[in-house]
UniProtKB/TrEMBL annotation, chain A:
Gene Ontology CC terms: glutamyl-tRNA(Gln) amidotransferase complex
Highest classification ranks of the organism: Bacteria, Bacillati, Actinomycetota, Actinomycetes, Micrococcales
HAMAP family, A to Z: GatA (MF_00120)
Reactions mediated catalytically: L-glutamyl-tRNA(Gln) + L-glutamine + ATP + H2O = L-glutaminyl-tRNA(Gln) + L-glutamate + ADP + phosphate + H(+)
Annotated gene: gatA
Name of the molecule in the record: Glutamyl-tRNA(Gln) amidotransferase subunit A
Organism: Labedella endophytica
Automatic annotation (TrEMBL), chain B:
SUPFAM superfamilies: Glu-tRNAGln amidotransferase C subunit
Sequence similarity: Belongs to the GatC family.
Alphabetically ordered keywords of this record: ATP-binding, Ligase, Nucleotide-binding, Protein biosynthesis, Transferase
Name assigned to this protein: Aspartyl/glutamyl-tRNA(Asn/Gln) amidotransferase subunit C
Superkingdom of the organism of origin: Bacteria
Entry EC number(s): 6.3.5.-
GO function terms (MF aspect): asparaginyl-tRNA synthase (glutamine-hydrolyzing) activity; ATP binding; glutaminyl-tRNA synthase (glutamine-hydrolyzing) activity; transferase activity
GO biological process: glutaminyl-tRNAGln biosynthesis via transamidation; regulation of translational fidelity; translation
Quaternary structure, from the entry: Heterotrimer of A, B and C subunits.
Annotated Pfam families: GatC (PF02686)
Gene name of the encoded protein: gatC
Amino acid sequence: MSELIRKSASELSELLSSGEVSSVEVTRAHLDRIEAVDGEVAAFLHVSSDALDNARSIDERRAAGDALGPLAGIPLAVKDVLVTTDMPSTSGSRILEGYMSPFDATVVAKSRAAGLVPIGKTNMDEFAMGSSTEHSAYGPTHNPWDLDRIPGGSGGGSAAAVAAFEAPLALGSDTGGSIRQPAHVTGTVGVKPTYGGVSRYGAIALASSLDQVGPVTRTVLDAGLLHDVIGGHDPLDSTSLRDEWPSMAAAAREGAAGGALTGLRVGVVSQLSGDGFQAGVRRRYEEALALLERNGAELVEVSAPHFEYAIAAYYLILPAEASSNLAKFDSVRFGMRVSPPGGGTVEQVMSATREAGFGPEVKRRIILGTYALSAGYYDAYYGSAQKVRTLIQRDFEQAFASVDVLVSPSAPTTAFRLGEKLDDPLAMYLNDIATIPANLAGVPAMSVPIGLAPEDGLPVGLQIMAPVREDARLYRAGAALEALLLEQWGHGLLAEAPELGGK
Amino acid sequence: MSEISEEQVAHLANLARIALTPEEITSLTTELDQIVDSIAKVQEVATPDVPATSHPVPLQNVFRDDVVGQTLTREQALANAPERTEDRFKVSAILGEEQ
């Protein structure tokens, strides 16, 4: 295996800028890796045929003395929810099979402008509805730690691509945990930025009041470097914040340098660690808390009494918004068209198309959302869920009045087996119990790997949450914890993952 | 329990423009019943004094200058259409025979 694929993006950045390696070499190493292992991992729905050409043009610009950003020449995997002009964008759905977007998502355009080399589109649950990628119309992705297990979802493809060393960096989207839960089960780093911190223009919308795009990487610093590229105001997204953001990479470097934990008040959410959390997840979590405390952090027990209502509120708000957002798949302007036998009116064609083009989970949520928004039920369900949202925001506000960050395990269990929860939607929904509150409140949150659960040898992540607009705090604390664990382990967690490529 | 009937699911499917099969209607009725049961707990704490939140980081009056920006060309807009006639999207009959 080429040593290049094992390097972090920040290490590759140094090798590229010193001229020790070229972007063509780095890109080819990752394309070779995809060729060797993606048959068994299935992280990618599409691999770019332009990647080497794009890499070559970055090398030429570097040779010509152009000023390039730190990530120029580094391959990037792109979740298929983000539209791209040079590769198909399906959002994991049959209804968009082969769809070619006339424009790039803003985060993709910013990545290209920074010299990143899009290497392929990654698998996901259809329209980001799921926690395992098993709802992808194109088949599931497999967890590189154990190919019989789920890579998380909806962004299992991006997390698996990074964990399997098929790409050093990936983009994801997080509506209820779709960046952080896959990070947790694959031993990688995932960040959901503050709502409005990163543009969603060109991200195929699931639930517009919850969706946020963010980085998927193997190190906290790499996440910061990518966050710096994709963040900032976008006039094409009317929910985009106009804030001037500090450098997240600088915050990560500050955190890794030491001292960042001294006096840091860490709120331990009592509702997110008890019953229903796997013993090995709890054990690694408690060890991580002890490590933070030994290094100067002050642990404070924090109660968030309304978090127990978060899943219920989420599964009303999300389907309601999704049922509206997915109305655009009408078989008229883009996407699949299926005519009923003998033809039919435009409405019959629309209904036949949506029946054929949507998978079972998408239909389930559209019908649920249509129900929640129906006259007579609106106040009881959707209206009540929006009130719960206020109560959860108040829980966060109250907690952040006395602590700097909040922590919890990123998910209740390690990666479960493919097929295990597929026929039980309610069991599947419980995977997101720890991650959903941050989406409902709009606060930024990160998952950092903290070890392997003793009972099954699978990765566990720690979730760190910060107040709205305080994303940099996540990077400081996350990088500080990562540095302590690296010192303890002597290597990154992924060095313990089994070898792939035995197909 | 059984608050949701098959007729209701069939009606919702019609509103959502999805031609569900009878088998799908039957299984969705059972699943939705369970899901709605479990999410109804939001009503326990959603008392009248609590205001609703629609967006987590609300913004007001997001305007841009009233100038023509970058738009798709007609060809780009039509490029993904399942069917087109000249410069227009083509669809089948709007009204059925009984309408």
